[in-house]
Amino acid sequence: DQQVKQNSPSLSVQEGRISILNCDYTNSMFDYFLWYKKYPAEGPTFLISISSIKDKNEDGRFTVFLNKSAKHLSLHIVPSQPGDSAVYFCAARIAGGTSYGKLTFGQGTILTVHP
Amino acid sequence: GAGVSQSPSNKVTEKGKDVELRCDPISGHTALYWYRQSLGQGLEFLIYFQGNSAPDKSGLPSDRFSAERTGGSVSTLTIQRTQQEDSAVYLCASSRRPTSGTDTQYFGPGTRLTVL
Asked: Across all residues in chain B, what is the average pLDDT?
């Protein structure tokens, strides 16, 4: 049961253009969402997050949008740079319980930004 | 300061052998997590330690998997009688305050396990 889904395995974008990475979830108990970026042979690094009480969070070139009714979030990167080429993982956290911090991850999307 | 470290970085073993994977979390972080990433898959939660509380083992795929965290710091993930489907990258993460809404998990570089 894949509770967090990234349906696009890969995305290719020209440098300077916008990259849009999408993520869908099924569990309405999720209350916090995160994006992680992963380079080969390294662990994932935190990029940006959003609480379920918000619909947008912006940090420099990165913006995350949350549509709770559609159970959908997206990450926008503007402008895209070749150094952004990596695997991007969407993750979600469920509210309450004893594993408050446990994250559920999507399968990841490989972003390639061409010079 | 130092990040999360894991050892070994790579481990090749034969089917049926036991393996131990080690994680050193960031100093002062009370929470520690183990995940694994199989080929073409996302990160799959395995186990979570928080302070002195009983660990959440709900993600462990079988009783061949176990983990411990000694002294609230270093953690060891043990896989007994390894199978080929155990081949994956095993990632450890730690965080400071998991009950905080903005708590961030910091990941180590992972251990790539290959079971022949």
From this structure: 91
Please report, as a single letter, which amino acid is at residue A25. Answer: Y
pLDDT computed for residue A33 by the predictor:
94
Q: Which of A60, A40, A63 is nearest to A50 (CA)?
A: A63
- CATH number of the domain to which B89 belongs: 2.60.40.10
Quick one: closest CA in A to B56, which residue?
A99
- A110 at the B interface (CB within 8 A)? no
Token reading at A91: 């993750």
pLDDT value at residue A82 = 97
The architecture (CATH level 2) of A4-114 comes to Sandwich (2.60)
What percent of chain A stands above pLDDT 90?
A: 83
Strands B75-79 and B88-95: unpaired
Is residue B55 less than 8 Å (CB to CB) from chain A?
Answer: no
Which sign, positive or negative, has the C-alpha torsion B1, B4, B10, B11? positive
Read off the pLDDT of each residue in B3-23 and give the average, rounded to a whole number: 97
Closest-CA distance of chain B to residue A112, Å? 17
Nearest residue on chain A to B47, alpha-carbon basis: A102
Percent of chain B with pLDDT over 70: 94
Tokens of A87: 């695997």
